[in-house]
Fold this sequence. Notes:
Strand content: under 5%
Shape: globular
Radius of gyration: 12 Å
CATH superfamily: lambda repressor-like DNA-binding domains
CATH topology: 434 Repressor (Amino-terminal Domain)
Number of strands: 0
Largest sheet: none
Order of helices and strands: HHHHH
Helix content: 55-70%
Structural class: mainly alpha
Number of helices: 5
Oligomer: single chain
Amino acid sequence: MPANLPPHTQSLAxxxxxxxxxxxxxxxxxxxxSFTNVSYLHALESGxxxxxxxxxxxxxxxxxGVDPELIDDMLITAGHLxxxxxxxxx
Length: 90
């Protein structure tokens, strides 16, 4: 996500596409790593599927290898509760 944009201003489809491309993963590789169907990933990234389940988003986040904060951002954008509530442990 560009640094000058506040969180949650991108659509979920845009976030997923950007994170997948930034990670250098193809749809096939991400599907394999997240135990998700390739066509489902295409539907998410194209915006045809707007609100995936919380579990699927978590699997995609782990498949992408992103930080928990980015997984939380995807979850919140899709209307789900974040993984963590309250202050972050670091």
